[in-house]
Amino acid sequence: MNFFINATMPKQKSGIEHAELKRLDLFNKNEEPVMVVLRDWDPNAHINANNAGIADDQLINMFDYFQEATQIAAKKVQVQDIEFGVLNIKMTDDAEKSRYLVQSNEQLVARVNYNVDADRQVKSVEWFDGFNNLYRVDHYDSRGFISLQQWYTPDNKIGTETWQTPSGRTVIEAFHKKTMRGEIIKTGWRLIDRNDQVYQFDTLAELTKYFFDCLNDDYWSLDQPNVFIADRTHLGDWGLLHLKKPAYTVFHLHNAHTADAQNPAAPLLNNNYEFSLHNIDGYDAVVSATYKQTADVRARFQPKTKLFTIPVGIVPERLLNAPRVPIAERQFGKMVVFARIAWEKHLDDLVRAIGIVHQEFPQVTLDLYGYPDPSDNYKARREVEQVIEEYHLSDVVSLKGYTTDIDEVQNNAMMYGLTSRMEGFNLAIMEAISHGLIAFSYDVNYGPNEIVEDGVNGSVVPYGDYQALAQAILKVLRDPKLADKYMTSAYDSAERYSEASVWAAWQSLLADAKESWPVKLAAMPGYQGGQQ
What we know:
The protein is of the alpha/beta class and 532 residues long. The chain is built from 16 helices and 23 strands. Helix 9 (347-360) packs parallel to helix 10 (375-390) and helix 9 (347-360) crosses helix 14.
């Protein structure tokens, strides 16, 4: 079995989730068995995963696994379905906060929080004692059962958390204590399995390792190994390197491996990858999305483990075979961007470049599609808005929010811009060239400076030089023949990311996994020629 390991599957997805979904589709099309493995508890995991095209029989959440709830029939729980255990119930709808206040003889009994978008399905119930103290919160899974109960201490802190099966049997407990700094931290985990065997773990990392061992046992085969592909390595890096039985483990780099993306030899490593990079030879394979990053990892760490370069983006056949939209049918000067409005995307620089271009071409426009990062009170969005005001671009630059209507938007546009501080590949710019958009990018590691070929399908300018970016855009807008050439080459260059090309790269890795298996089995303690 092939396992893709992530935290959860949010409604608003990052590039890692989009890459995972594309890979899932590719493996399914080629009839290669695969499961998406989610480590974190999430009451909406199944709704979001199903909406993203992941069926329940290809989804394993760690908590669901131990809660015996990987595949269950969903039901709708509303406030009238809850037994409050007291007489003379009075319910008041606090619609502004999406909750009911439940009282008995003027005494607050509970607050029932509901989902407005799901016909007021219950999300959680907050329970109060006779002194108006919150003592417990019941969190409901979106499929209609109490999944997590949080028990509160008299000083209104979470003391214990318990996860239970749909039938109400407690199977996981997490305990909390206050540190000398006054912070509440988890101090231990207890697991009661379906055979009533009790396990104690000091950390979530230890519980995660046990979970991986269970998966490895469940899908164990003497013919070929299970393949664990860690898309968010920091979730289970230690566990993957300490499996009870052998497997084929893959460390997937989705971003720059150093804190300073432009300096692959920088002393500070990306903290999400630091442990795995220091233990790189513990993995069977390392996957980078670009040849440049593969070369940089090899030069710096000189690993014994095998390095593979596999694009995380895939251009589907429908796009490669779709009719090409000529430049004459597109809106002249329209640039679009699909990206979170976040510090690392540095979109204020792109707006500055458009401000310069607008002085010569008033018809130029920039549409930013993506949700704003809330960090530092939405600082990145405020910086973009400040540049819009400085250059008087309120009628030129539009913040469109998140959208999935990529085809329609990009087939109407002419250009795509990218001014990131760091990247691991950038699916959006790959999708842009597959729609024939002329791409403009900083020379940023990793991905854009490979996907965009300077002078072929667009322009790559020095990192951080928004004035050079503006001049590159102006050069194209002034020269219709050059624009047409770049657009044609953009369509052509998308062939590098066809399903066939990317699948061939994955086949090389899977073949290596199978070839290495006899050696791994032979080294396994207690293994005797076909027996465990």
